[in-house]
Amino acid sequence: MSNETNSAPARRTHDLAGGVLLSHELGGAAMLRRPVSSAAADPVQTEPGTSQDRSTRCRPRLALSIPADRYRVHQTAIDSAVAEVFRSGRFILGEQTVAFEREFAAFLGVDHCVGVGNGTDAIEIALRACGIGPGEAVLTVAHTAVATVAAIERTGASVVLVDIDPLTFTMDPESLRATIAAYQADSGGNGRPRLKAVVPVHLYGCPADLPAIQTIAHEYGLRVIEDCAQAHGAMLERRMTGAWGDLAAFSFYPTKNLGAFGDGGAVVTKDAALAEQVGLLRQYGWKPRRISSIRGCNSRLDELQAAILRVLLKHLPNENARRREVASRYDVLLAGTQLSLPPTRPSCAPVFHQYVVRTPYRDALRASLEADGIPTQIHYPVPVHLQPAYQGRLFLRVSSLPLTEIAAREVLSLPMSPYLTPDQFERIREGIRRWLNSNGGPE
To answer: Model-level pTM?
Structure first.
């Protein structure tokens, strides 16, 4: 991955067939296929940095729910799978879980998958399977869901934070190397926890620069545990995320690209010994059953969620492709504006768990879209090291993580779903163009 920092990152290019993406049908609902108009909306006169008077623009909120839409599209198959579980009378670690583990491992191109209770448990158990605990330290990023850091700390290990690449928002390899050097120099035999692993986060569906990160990790004898909670099906150099590190952790939270209808997670690996250890850890360390050979926990993917995930896994490639199409529409709409868009990287196929733009006018843009009834999110508004539970007690190479902190002030997640309809995208387009043509958001 390039570490370019120019202000105009490369955009993805796509054959839009004259501005109209190829037509598909998904669950009987026609998806986005309207050409993006080049004509801008009428300019709206406002104070600089503000949106139009909300009282004159109040519109019904756009109803977007990935779990609800997912169920609507796949209802028949999901209902059938759930009914089969009830008929079986087996609800914990039964045939559905075994089958999903086998199918998900095959999808990723790894040898082993172990279903667990959620994505946070998946990170913790993956680290514990590597023997990581008190007296040791793990490198990761602060621009992530707090679950990444919380899982590391649950092992008893300490957290060392690395800054991000400002274009991809993922771990910057140069910062990783500098942080390792600073940490080791600062340790100086004073009993500081030893570095044992690095947890790169594939944020927003964009793979981290794993070739560079793994090279550095191997130089220092560090394990690599991928946080794939937002990257189901993303690829780098034609290899799936989850198939690079010693182990990888997945979440199946309902809004994920591959999401259950409740909590769920998985740990995957190519290493049989690590997979066995993960299997022991997820169920009390039992070996044999009801005899704990090691200290484990209770974190199991249940049969109902496994059955649903088996249904949805079959549709994941097509739904990821739909996300890429929606991203292409955003690219066309926002090209040439002051908004920074997700960049292109050679040999990288992101899956757009989120479509994230950045702008110093983030709050004005968000307020304007909210006034138009268009929901947006900020992933994530406060870096982990600045949150009250963690402030002042995590290792930083310098006193701050400048690129992480700037990103937290500027990022905005626009609506992203494989189930967006043409009318829904048109409303989003109108709202964005209205803001871009106001004084608060000049092109």
So the answer is: 0.87
